[in-house]
Amino acid sequence: MRRIFQIISVFWVFLVWGFISAPPVSALRFELIAPSGILQRGQEVVFTIRIDPEGESLTNAVIGLAYDTQYLEFLNAIPGDTFDAIATEEIEFGKLVLTGTDSQPVDSEGVFAQVKFKLIADAPGATQLCSFFNPEITPTPTAPAPTTAPAAPTSTPPPPVSGQGDISDTAILFGGIGVLGGALLLLLRSRLPF
Known about the structure:
21% of the residues are buried. Helix content is 22%, strand content 37%. The chain is of the alpha+beta class. Helix 1 packs antiparallel against helix 2 (168-191). The protein starts with a helix and ends with a helix. The model is unreliable at 12-17 and 138-171 (pLDDT under 50). Strand 5 (85-92) and strand 6 form a beta hairpin. It folds into 2 domains: 2-22 and 170-191, no CATH class; 29-166, Immunoglobulin-like, CATH 2.60.40.680. The strands form 2 sheets. A 5-stranded antiparallel β-sheet has the order 4-7-2-1-10, with no helix packed on it. Strands 5-6-3-8-9 form a 5-stranded antiparallel β-sheet, with no helix packed on it. The protein contains 2 helices and 10 strands.
């Protein structure tokens, strides 16, 4: 029984250590909003990227946007109502990195950028045209986890999809497991004869 108590003690210490040593994470959210309605070949279409810093004050933010080169041709990106400037870098064919910068900290949600494409699809159909990815940048500014947004040509607008780069749920999980482990440890200690 003493061995069980020691194993549970070590387990609990590691759980608490994992909770305490978890790096601070920004709860930044991006949302990709696809154009609505029936899309026609040759038409210029705009994808809107919304940002929600969720209480953080940011002077820059970065997001990767992958697009299907069989159906879309990238034209440009313009800043929305949150950041003053948007820089666009094509890191490979079909993958853009958008960096928003502002001299004043941005702390409210709004439009991060509007990205304009020309529709070059050969035939009608439905497919995923754009999705987010987490760009590898050194030094890495605040960036979210990948998310995707459906962009099928339909007569009704597709619902917006949001995602977040927030691992605070993991820290809460470790903390909860640590508390439960501590409670179990106290319960076992009170019942064991040593």
